[in-house]
Design a protein that fits this description.
By secondary structure, this protein is an all-alpha fold. It has one domain. It comes from Rhizobium redzepovicii.
């Protein structure tokens, strides 16, 4: 479980740092982002803080097995909320198969993966 949490942490931290440090670059290189509306540096940085927070919580969960579940729960507030928002928008506004596959692969699946911590019977991550 530790390698999974650590890998997800790195993914979220990288995304958050990129959003905070280089919003124009993030906006231009992440697939589909330019389709969501005009560039807004403040908005991108706000969301980057959410990814940074989730990444920190997942990283700490990978090292502190005794408190992994609460840390994953904290990270999941943002990650699952973000994923559910994308799913709701796909349902409400429709989407093409490529767009749906991208969102499911890059947003929904990584948001669900940390929940594997809750399937473990022991407190060891």
């Amino acid at each position: 479980m530790r390698p999974l949490l650590l890998a997800l942490s790195v993914l979220q931290l990288f995304n958050g740092v990129l959003m905070l440090a280089a919003p124009p670059l993030w906006y231009s290189v992440i697939p589909g982002v330019t389709e969501t509306g005009p560039f807004n540096s403040h908005f991108i940085r706000d969301i980057g803080l959410g990814f940074l927070s989730a990444g920190c919580a997942l990283g700490m969960a990978s090292w502190y097995a005794a408190i992994a579940r609460p840390l994953v729960a904290v990270a999941s507030v943002f990650l699952l909320g973000h994923a559910l928002l994308h799913l709701a928008e796909m349902g409400l506004h429709g989407t093409g198969p490529a767009h749906a596959m991208r969102d499911i692969t890059l947003i929904v699946v990584p948001a669900l993966m940390p929940l594997a911590v809750f399937k473990r019977r022991t407190s060891h991550v």
